[in-house]
Design brief:
Length: 92
């Protein structure tokens, strides 16, 4: 379902972002990413919330979706998913 690109599945993918299983949450974020701008617009707040997920893979998928298809502010917000609780300056 997530990989199909069918926009009718968007509500199910949004719901998946709150599942107890991190793999289901990851598929939800990836499914929204596959749906491009329409998926990200529909799930903007849920994807922003997913940037704080305990699972790195979920944060990465949400960050990629927001970085590619969100607003400039969303793209800026998606940067911390790469290094939770660390600043970019620690990479140097």
């Amino acid at each position: 379902m997530a990989a199909s690109g069918n926009l009718e599945a968007t509500p199910v993918l949004i719901e998946a972002l709150s599942d107890a299983d991190s793999a289901v949450r990851w598929w939800g974020a990836v499914g929204l990413l596959i749906r491009s701008e329409k998926g990200v617009v529909a799930a903007r707040q849920e994807l922003l919330d997913a940037l704080e997920d305990d699972a790195p893979a979920v944060r990465i998928a949400a960050g990629e979706a927001l970085g590619r298809y969100g607003s400039a502010a969303d793209a800026a917000s998606s940067w911390p998913w790469r290094t939770p609780r660390r600043t970019v300056s620690t990479w140097r």
